[in-house]
Amino acid sequence: MSDKEVRPLSPREPRSDAVANRRRIVEAARAELSSANGATDDLRLHRVAKAAGIGQGTLYRHFPTREHLLAEVYRQELTELVDAVGPLLAEHPPLRALECWLDHLLAYARVKRGVMAAIEASTWEDLYSAQHHRLDDALDELLARGRAAGEVREGIDATDVVLLLGALSRIPGPEWDTRAPTVVAMVVEGLRATPARGPG
């Protein structure tokens, strides 16, 4: 290439402070949603900006609307849930790893409820359809490891478990903290392999 030829511009990397600001905004919004049991009516962007230690102008540069912010919160929550599978399986026997993962899923479900309530149905459908297979894949991996270890019943797949966990969506917000763990405990017991009975 001669000195007179123009080199193509490389994509501009985000500034490190911009990346940090975006991360703080998402974390602050997740904390707000969690403390409000997913009630997005109480999610105020000025409070999120204050909690993140940034100005509202900076928040709007990253997320022009509350819907944009909530969609990113949902994606982050799902990513952390999916990424937890490997470490949990490395640390625990399969059924215990699944139980711990379902505890993590409660935090995800709380955020999901808030996002579903706050964004338009068509937008939610697009967001969910693009992401939900990741949840199914993570759950199938946990179930497969449990079956291989003889800890999880045969004949159960991710769709079965997701249908059971659909009960979480019907728990009223004020009762979430007491009823949601009970639902998960019942699901785990239902997944547990029954020891083979001996003769007699």
From TrEMBL:
InterPro entries, alphabetized: Homeodomain-like_sf (IPR009057), HTH-type_TetR-like_transc_reg (IPR050109), HTH_TetR (IPR001647), Tet_transcr_reg_TetR-rel_C_sf (IPR036271), TetR_SbtR-like_C (IPR049445)
Source lineage: Bacteria, Bacillati, Actinomycetota, Actinomycetes, Pseudonocardiales
UniProt domain HTH tetR-type: residue ranges: 19-81
Species assigned in the record: Pseudonocardia xishanensis
Any Pfam family: TetR_N
Record protein name field: TetR/AcrR family transcriptional regulator
Gene3D superfamilies tied to this protein: Tetracycline Repressor, domain 2
UniProt-listed SUPFAM superfamilies: Homeodomain-like (SSF46689), Tetracyclin repressor-like, C-terminal domain (SSF48498)
Residues making up the signal peptide according to the UniProt record: none
Domain of life: Bacteria
